[in-house]
Write a structure and sequence with these properties.
The protein has about 130 residues and is of the alpha+beta class. It has a single domain, classed as Hotdog Thioesterase (Thiol Ester Dehydrase, Chain A, Roll), CATH 3.10.129. About 15% of the residues lie in helices and about 40% in strands. It has a five-stranded antiparallel sheet, covered by helices on one side.
Length: about 130
């Protein structure tokens, strides 16, 4: 598990609210997954230059909880491309908003796979 905050601008940054919690008051894992999917799709779309759809989550790890009001930053990196597919590694880092950015902690990471599609929702080759 990487513990060094990525040295780049996050693809997505959000603040979870009370409606995003589970029954115990922690941020719901499904909410984190959906935000990671949005960040990964943004990265994949930038490469594909067309619509992409999620076809799989190759790995997913929850390392630490996220709390209401934390600022969560999602960092993405393309790790593999195929004819029509793009795998994106997504890391989520959280910090209390009153804390310095270097006090961020990695809370989740996973690899999401996307496929580039056309207007008929059929796979298309990624122009490289």
């Amino acid at each position: 598990m990487t513990q060094k905050l990525p040295d780049k601008i996050p693809t997505l940054r959000v603040v979870p609210l009370p409606a995003d919690t589970n029954a115990y008051g922690d941020i719901f894992g499904g909410w984190l997954l959906s935000q990671m999917d949005l960040a990964g799709a943004s990265e994949a779309t930038s490469l594909a230059k067309c619509r992409v759809v999620t076809v799989g989550v190759d790995s997913m790890n929850f390392h630490q909880p996220v709390f209401v009001g934390d600022e969560v930053s999602f960092y993405t990196e393309i790790v593999r491309t195929g004819r029509s597919s793009i795998a994106v590694h997504v890391q989520s880092w959280a910090r209390a908003r009153a804390e310095a950015i270097n006090n961020s902690r990695m809370v989740t990471e996973g690899v999401f796979t996307f496929v580039a599609i056309d207007e008929n929702r059929k796979p298309v080759e990624i122009a490289q």
